[in-house]
Amino acid sequence: MSTPVIKVENLVKRYKELIAVDHFNLEIREGEILGLLGPNGSGKTTTINCILSLLSYDKGTIEVFGKEMQPDSYDSKRKIGVVMQNVAVFDALNVYDNIDYFCGLYIKDKQLRRQYVEEAIEFVGLSDYKKFYPKKLSGGLLRRLNIACGIAHKPKLIFLDEPTVAVDPQSRNRILEGILELNRQGATIVYTSHYMEEVEQICTRIAIMDKGKNLATGTTDELKQMIKKKEIISIEILDISDEDILALKELKNVYDVTYENHKLTILCSNGKHNLIHILDYLQTKNLSFGRVYSELPTLNDVFLEMTGKELRD
Ligand SMILES: Nc1ncnc2c1ncn2[C@@H]1O[C@H](COP(=O)(O)OP(=O)(O)OP(=O)(O)O)[C@@H](O)[C@H]1O
């Protein structure tokens, strides 16, 4: 197999007593969109900053493009694009000049740079705003400028740290589409977020992070296979006895039944034929019911089962 683009082994980063990254392991292969998913404070940004050699760390090894990453790894850094969580542009420069400045850190040839800057402007949809100063841009447009600054030099590896926080839906979709397009053009992407829908939508693989640890890595389907919960059945029912609830719990694959606000929630450990068995039971007992829903687990269920808490706090 080819060398991973990023290889992190046993990374530990402490801020005094706080262990922000705790024996973290991760491999990212060329062409992936790797989603680093975790709640606020789980250590995503710290991990990224360690990988980029912007932060020193206490233990572990980090390789990028097959070489140990160090603060002066300029050859590797040239091939990396970073879009930080906090918008980092110059207020005194307009849209064009901001992108030109960041692109100019890597691309010295003026003609090529002009082409790259124009392409980046086009790519993020800021053609009508070239002369605008950052203070005149809406939150969503500012984020797009931030992205253009990070990707104008056509990096092979791109880190995007929560690029859609506080962004309107139109800009958000544009950003997500843009990330997919960058990936189609050949870039490997590391995308950190605490929005599971976004991660599920665009990432080829996901690493679930909590309290500095990588709890599990896999495709969405692989992660869902790792947990016990495979199907969640909800049934609206006016009344049901404790005896019937106990009997439902005895059905094959059922491992938990709760009844609250006239809603029966049944958790099943296998995703096949559960609904038929449950409805059969209710019908033989002459229990009338209303709407019935069957859902597959979400990434939030994966997170909940692995950590005991919701992803959205
Ligand atoms: N410079 C710092 N000094 C001390 N503690 C820090 C520092 N930076 C981060 N931390 C702490 O380290 C932990 C991990 O923070 P980090 O910002 O890496 O998490 P995150 O998952 O990126 O969160 P968010 O989604 O809010 O950005 C948190 O408890 C945070 O308070």
Written overview of the protein:
With 313 residues, the protein is α/β, with parallel strands linked by helices. The protein folds into two domains: 6-225, P-loop containing nucleotide triphosphate hydrolases (Rossmann fold); 231-296, 2-Layer Sandwich (Alpha-Beta Plaits). The chain is 35% helix and 28% strand. It has eleven helices and 14 strands. The protein has helices at 44-51, 74-78, 95-104, 110-124, 139-151, 169-184, 196-202, 220-225, 242-249, 274-284, 299-307; strands spanning 6-15, 18-28, 33-37, 59-64, 67-68, 80-83, 157-161, 188-193, 205-210, 213-218, 231-237, 254-260, 263-268, 289-295. A six-stranded mixed sheet has the order 6-7-8-3-9-10, with helices on both faces. A four-stranded antiparallel sheet has the order 2-1-4-5, with helices on one face. Strands 12-13-11-14 form a four-stranded antiparallel sheet, covered by helices on one side. The chain is elongated and about 80 Å long. The mean pLDDT is 92. Adenosine-5'-triphosphate (ATP) binds at residues 15, 18, 20, 38, 40-46, 85, 194.
What's the SSE blueprint?
Elements: E1 6-15, E2 18-28, E3 33-37, H1 44-51, E4 59-64, E5 67-68, H2 74-78, E6 80-83, H3 95-104, H4 110-124, H5 139-151, E7 157-161, H6 169-184, E8 188-193, H7 196-202, E9 205-210, E10 213-218, H8 220-225, E11 231-237, H9 242-249, E12 254-260, E13 263-268, H10 274-284, E14 289-295, H11 299-307
Parallel strand pairs: 3-8, 3-9, 6-7, 7-8
Antiparallel strand pairs: 1-2, 1-4, 4-5, 9-10, 11-13, 11-14, 12-13
Domain ABC transporter: 6-236
GO molecular function: ATP binding
Pfam family, one: DrrA1-3_C
